[in-house]
Amino acid sequence: MSVQEYLDKHMLSRKIEDAVNAAVRAKAPDPVLFISNHMRKAVRCVITKIKARQILDGRGIPTVEVDLYTNKGMYRAAAPGGTSTGMYGAVELRDGEKGKYIGMGVSRAVKNVNEKISEALIGMDPTLQSQIDQAMIDLDKSENKGELGANAILAVSIAACKAGAAEKEVPLYKHIADISGKTSAVLPVPAFTLISGGKHAGNNLPAQEIMVLPIGASSFEEAMQMGSEAYQHLKAVISERYGAIGCNVGEDGGFSPDISSFTEVLDLVMEAIDRTGYSERIKIAIDVGASDFCIGSKYDLDFKSPKKSGQNFRTGEDMMELYTQLCRDYPIVSIEEPFDKDDWEHTKSLTRLAICQVVGDDLLMSNPKCIEKAIDEFTCNALVLKMNQIGTVTEAIEAVKMAKDGHWGVVMSHISGETEDSFIADLAVGLATGQIKAGAPCRGERLSKYNQLLRIGEELGDQAVYAGDNWRLP
Length: 474
Prior knowledge:
By secondary structure, this protein is an alpha/beta fold.
């Protein structure tokens, strides 16, 4: 083939002429760079390759990381690994080989990405998020993504979302807002974990997380400062009362002094808040994680104390009284998973009291069917959104829309097995959830989310909107 035939076949002369004319019209200071970018934009972006690997999450447990390639770049994402279980949640695919990573390896999920998902998605436009996600759902064919693995599907879905944003040359949160139909971005109120308990720490506290919400901050940047100062003051309070050993941290970075009493731990947090000087501007939230200590229809508050376990059972009514008293005595504005995942009736009763936001976790598993039922039956009034429970970006967007249509609050949430991937920060802003919990202002896999929110706030500048007092319904 001659040079002229090659030029004619690919219409290069016409394309180059168009690019040169565009550079002239734009009076480009660097015409070569302008022409290069102009030509690049003229090429349709498609997925060319997807490569997965096994990496470790913040607990030292394997998870799936994906590099998604287009003809214009490479985009990386990692799936977080969780512990929540429920019949309606998406299922992570684990190897089950006891001799490797105690059965928690993800080589099968990695293989599914490299051999099945990659083949199905090559040639697709990364800006078409819903089509990509649906292609993976169709390929899996199961109800819970158990064939390919929700960890495999989610990592690819997030990587595709990043590629779509890059192709549109917009920030990730803006791309998410666009595909979800949102018109404005909102920086969420962070729920900082100050004290860890439950299955997240080795102390005797039954509740999983005691958090503070800087609702009264004027910006996310100030909220970050307030949360960090509360965390550091709490460290000093715990050290004074329990010694340095009480300042050990749990999986999500919260301190884990050996306390079992709700009131004792809340008193510690209140003293730390008082020391910050922000007393009227900081509220408290609790993630009880009650499913972990429900036995039959009763709750064992000493389930972590071998010598006491079984001696301190509470009924659902007893727990109702406990939460009611705690909300009277402390500035608690949100309680997550106050009862067992199957205890819909007591969850409804607490919601009807209207004393705080009642957040469904294992009760809902971020599943649209469960959310719809809970809205119809007035079971709770907020959704905690965990990406691993739902499996794709598109389904996460749909779940948030459903919750907001039901006038619910939405809490974008980390999970126990987080990675340094900061995707949920952009997701929270793009979907205007109004709330995000990413753990303590401690540990890199938690701070990656908060630091990304600081960057987004800086990028938005005067256009930045902090949820603040509108944290539930921004």
